[in-house]
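Hello,

Our lab assistant flagged a job as stuck in the queue for most of the afternoon. It eventually completed. Since we weren't sure the result was trustworthy after the delay, we are filing this so someone can double-check. Below is the sequence as submitted and the structure that was eventually returned. Let us know if re-running is recommended.
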Amino acid sequence: MIARKLGLIYARNMSIEISERKEHILDFLKQNSTAVLATANKYGEPHAATIYYTVDEDLNIYFITKRDTTKSQNLKNSGRGALAVHEATTQTTVQAVGKVEEETDVNKSQKVFSDILKISMETSESGTPPISKLQAGPYIAYRLTPDSARMASFIRPDSGSYERIFEDA
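-- returned structure --
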């Protein structure tokens, strides 16, 4: 009985800790807007591209591209992607890996396009997303649903083992 109670308390504390970590990662992702998206083709050859992204409260990460880009073709074949976001000032990074699907909800897709355009206008001299300059078919909005996400802040004054640096959601 005591073991069960202690286990329940431990499980509750772990749940709170995981929830706090998720919020910490979500806050970081909301404060940033560019990432490197990694995909692989059907032969397993890697491909990386810089993207603008937006994120929702469930840690789903949204981005746009065009249908005939390498990343889009790779996602069509594998349905998987990895994403890295880095902030140089704080030496903080978030890495997420997961399933990537085309966002088929028209309202969500339109919001993603609008959010990405706004981000581009706020961060770039040209005001338009780089993808708009490619002749690569129609636009597509994608959603990366992370299987895992982790964050590390390397600017922390204390150093430690590999496990102590990363926070998993």
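-- support follow-up --
The delay was a queue issue, not a problem with the job. The result is valid. The radius of gyration is 18 Å. Residues 2-168 form a domain with the Pnp Oxidase; Chain A fold (CATH 2.30.110.10).
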